[in-house]
Amino acid sequence: MVWFESLQHFISEADQVLIVSHVNPDGDAVSSTLAAGYLLKRWGKQVTMVNESPVPKKFFILEGTKEIVSTDQISGRFRHVIALDCADRERMGNIRQLLAEDAFIINIDHHATNERFGDVNIVVPDAAATVEILFDWVEQAGVSLDQRLASYLYTGLLTDTGGFRYSNTTPKVLRIAAQLVDTGIESHKIADAVLETVTIEQLQLLQKALSSLRRSDDGLVAWMSLSRKDTDAFLQSHEDLDGIVNYARNILGVDVGILFRETEDGTVKVSLRSREFVDVGKVAKAFGGGGHARAAGCTFHGSLKEAEEKMLPRLRLELECEKR
Amino acid sequence: MVWFESLQHFISEADQVLIVSHVNPDGDAVSSTLAAGYLLKRWGKQVTMVNESPVPKKFFILEGTKEIVSTDQISGRFRHVIALDCADRERMGNIRQLLAEDAFIINIDHHATNERFGDVNIVVPDAAATVEILFDWVEQAGVSLDQRLASYLYTGLLTDTGGFRYSNTTPKVLRIAAQLVDTGIESHKIADAVLETVTIEQLQLLQKALSSLRRSDDGLVAWMSLSRKDTDAFLQSHEDLDGIVNYARNILGVDVGILFRETEDGTVKVSLRSREFVDVGKVAKAFGGGGHARAAGCTFHGSLKEAEEKMLPRLRLELECEKR
After folding, report:
1. pLDDT at residue A6 tops 90
2. DHHA1 domain spans which residues (chains A, B) (predicted)?
């Protein structure tokens, strides 16, 4: 691997390294930060792990999460920086005041859309997660896998593949997972903490959404809505909403699941998920939004009812056209 | 493997084989039936696959599910029988009239509690699923893995490990999964169909249960209840309830999750799940029920309110004693 040498060179030059991942960190962001930090410390480096946003509680099962500090807790300027799982510079959050003028950034990421903003860019779109690239690094470097390192790498793989359920669950991912579990980590406890555990507020929000659940007569579209009152009472993080719209999409026979949500600024945010037929990215775009064929979103001005009256006929048309 | 030879001998003797799995089949039951049937047909055998209960719709993604017939759709008596994933004879359901007097039963199962009711018993408690034993058979027999066979074996592994989340997710399981995905099966579509897909009735039942969700002041116990009216309206299968009690257990900080459910016969069925501290098997036993430390159940005579008034103080006591 060509990139391996530039990485080793970077490490040999560095004494103090700043490790940063993206704002609102998910499992891969937290895990790749911890894994890279742990590796560098084993090599005798001084490491500062930073994130603009707090680490979600469900990841506290991982050792050392409290060592990831917020941007305003540190000072000084770093000359050696590793950016993990960040598709562009902005995803790192507000870290400008932490960078020396001649800061050298290694950008390690698996997003195909990565803007190659680093001085060295290790971008591997075939990797299911950034931790998969770190695993390859560990192997190349001949580092022995211990349980602590394995638990980090396992968490990133698990979360970025939706618990080995998404199409990025390649044979390679499963073989790496097997090697990680070989170390004796209690992988079921990680799965329980990071995939199964919910907050009571998430369940309360889900209950509100489910109580509004409706389905079209042909069973192809299911939708739910959350009022301003519901979200004011229960919404804590935007990740919580992702989970909810999937409940509508996952109904047997449904192709498109929708969540309509009233926001503070008098608009209605619409999340769309589809299984197979409708390209919801195209639909969202028609209303000024964006996204992919299977997951997209847009925003309407007006009430929940008005948003439904715009979106539902448009989806009906898509389905009619698909059925021709 | 010692058992391999008896299996091959059985196959060489048999022309017509009856394949049966347990009543209310889960993913491993359906998949092991289909996999064994497919293997035997490839070897030129006449195969009848039977199950007392209908195959749940979510498994229709697997080719050939419609060839699994119900007990009353077939006649004749079989001399060669393979029982899959059945811990005891009763689990096979009412198949007595299908067995010849000198019927020879091969009992293939992974439950440690298996009663060894067969003429040959291939019971492997270390296997995560019955399909794991079938995979070993396929390897030993030198059978090439095609996508159809791989999709069956993958489904059984996936469902019996809770989507690779339970503690039976061994490195071996993950390595087998990798080999199965190597064949090019769309494993994410299987995961979507068998793990993610829900019926609208399941969601309606979930909504009813969530609307009753309460949590103890210390956050360690969470409980929900379903009235007779709720279950009459929405309950279709008992599997649906398993899913629901886990929502209570999965709340951050909760150790014991409970579902109280009014039944037709004027009793209240109680499902208990725990994470770490309370042995709910012991608690259930104190009320005449049973189960394991992490999953158990019992039945009370009386109303939902009376059941709560008996169960909650008992759990409080357990937690106080654990905290000493």
Report:
1. no
2. 239-312
Edge-to-edge strand order for the sheet containing A214-215? A214-215, A221-226, A256-262, A267-274, A295-301, A290-291
Q: Are residues B260 and B224 in the same domain?
A: yes
Is B200 close to A177, i.e. CB distance below 8 A?
Answer: no
**Rounded Cα gap, residues A216 and B77, in angstroms:** 48
Closest CA to B214 of A194, A239, A207: A207
Q: Tell me which residue in B57, B191, B213 faces A252 most closely, judged by beta carbons.
A: B57
* Residues on chain B touching A57 (C-beta within 8 angstroms): 252
> Of residues A30 and B236, which shows the higher confidence score?
A30
Asked which of B167, B196, B225 is the last residue of a domain, the reply is: B196
The two beta strands, A16-21 and A46-50, are parallel
Q: Residue A233 is part of which domain span? A: 200-323
Per-residue pLDDT, averaged over A129-153, amounts to 97
The count of structural domains within chain A is: 2
Mean pLDDT of chain A: 95
A215 and A152 part of one domain? no
- For residue B142, with 0-12 CB atoms within 10 Å meaning exposed, 13-18 middle and 19 or more buried, which class applies? exposed
A95 and A174 together in one domain: yes
Considering the domain architecture, whether residues A206 and A160 belong to the same structural domain is answered as no
Residue A125 confidence class, pLDDT cut points 50, 70, 90:
very high
Using a CB–CB cutoff of 8 Å, tell me whether B251 touches chain A.
yes
Closest by Cβ to B188, choosing from A169, A215, A252 = A169
Contacts of A165 in chain B (CB under 8 A): 163, 188, 191-192, 195-196
Given CB atoms, is B165 within the 8 Å cutoff of chain A? yes
B247 in contact with A, Cβ within 8 Å: yes
Distances (CA, A) of B54 to A236, B66, B72, B76: 42, 10, 12, 20
Contact B136, A137 (CB under 8 A): no
Q: Which of A181, A182, A211 sits opposite B207 (nearest CB)?
A: A211
Task: With a cut of 90, say whether residue A1 has pLDDT above it.
Answer: no
Structure confidence at residue B233 (pLDDT): 86
- Region of A84 on the Ramachandran plot (φ > 0 left; ψ -120 to 50 alpha; else beta): beta
State how far the Cα of B257 lies from the Cα of B286, in Å rounded to an integer: 17
SS3 at position B68? strand
- Which two structure tokens, joined as six digits, stand for B138? 């396929």
Q: What is the CATH number of the domain that holds B104?
A: 3.90.1640.10
Same domain, A168 and A239: no
Instruction: Look at the block and give the residue holding tokens 């209310």.
Output: B24
Nearest Cα of chain A lies from the Cα of B84 at a distance, in angstroms, of 26
Q: What are the tens digits of pLDDT across the range A224-237?
A: 999 999 999 888 87
Q: Which residues of chain A lie closer than 8 angstroms to B187, CB-CB?
A: 169
Where is the domain boundary, B181, B196, B211? B196
- Cβ–Cβ contact A188 with B under 8 A: yes
